[in-house]
Design a protein that fits this description.
246 residues, mainly alpha, two-stranded antiparallel sheet, 9 helices, elongated, Hemerythrin-like, Dimeric_xanthone_biosynth, Hemerythrin-like domain-containing protein
Length: 246
């Protein structure tokens, strides 16, 4: 089914399938790649998606609460038993899928930020290709967030206050707003360079990226952590979690 999403002055026809949220990547990028090593600390942190028994038994921090009553209710619940490997995989499915999508954004950001920081383009990449990489990052982030806010988050919000748009308390949604403010500035600069309205200055490009880089990478990690098995089991049964699409 095709849906029309309008975001930041852009219109996207989006087909609701997993590939709509990302573009294909060949596999996780290693943070030991030289591109990643040139980035600031906030952009080298990645969520650990291991399905080992130790991780399945590790307690995570309690989710953000929509109010004092929810905090009281959460604290009064008894400690949950350890998940079996099969249960962990079921509850961790959304986090694993989301981290796959987010890895594309990390990789694309790393390419652009490395060039902006060092003043050197990746080998074999033209200036036009570098600028197009930046515009692609913006386009896919906008589309990804549009699908989340229109379809994915409302499903989760039925039980999880972290995804509720009402009340203005969702930190994840506030992060979306901050990210889009930074993306608008970056897109405006890149388009001016492509239209030859201004010369490309790598220090300016880096400045445009630094204005929202920290919140972007915090968001990419925090969203995956919120969807992690130990947190999701607090809100959903096994039957319910299997029916949530992504």
């Amino acid at each position: 089914m095709l849906h029309l999403i309008r975001l930041s002055g852009h219109r996207f026809n989006v087909r609701l399938s997993p590939i709509s949220l990302s573009v294909a990547v060949k596999g996780p990028a290693s943070i030991h790649n030289p591109i990643y090593q040139s980035l600031p600390a906030y952009s080298t942190r990645r969520s650990t998606m291991s399905s080992s028994a130790d991780q399945s038994q590790r307690a995570e921090a309690a989710p953000a609460s929509a109010g004092a009553s929810e905090q009281t209710a959460a604290s009064s619940k008894p400690e949950l038993p350890p998940l079996t490997p099969a249960e962990f995989r079921a509850y961790n499915r959304l986090a694993e899928h989301m981290d796959y999508f987010h890895e594309h954004f990390r990789r694309s950001w790393a390419i652009l930020y490395s060039a902006a920081s060092t003043g050197k383009r990746p080998a074999g990449m033209s200036m036009k290709q570098l600028l197009d990489e930046g515009l692609s990052l913006i386009k896919y982030l906008e589309t990804h967030h549009g699908i989340e806010e229109s379809f994915f988050f409302p499903i989760l919000a039925r039980k999880m206050p972290q995804f509720r748009a009402t009340g203005g308390k969702s930190e994840l949604l506030k992060q979306h707003q901050q990210i889009h403010a930074g993306m608008d500035l970056l897109e405006d600069y890149i388009r001016k360079v492509k239209n030859r309205e201004t010369e490309l200055d790598m220090s300016v490009l880096k400045e445009k990226m630094d204005s929202w880089g920290e919140v972007l990478h915090k968001h990419l990690d925090q969203e995956v952590e919120t969807l992690g098995a130990e947190n999701m089991r607090k809100y959903w049964t096994m039957d319910e979690i299997r029916t949530i699409p992504i």
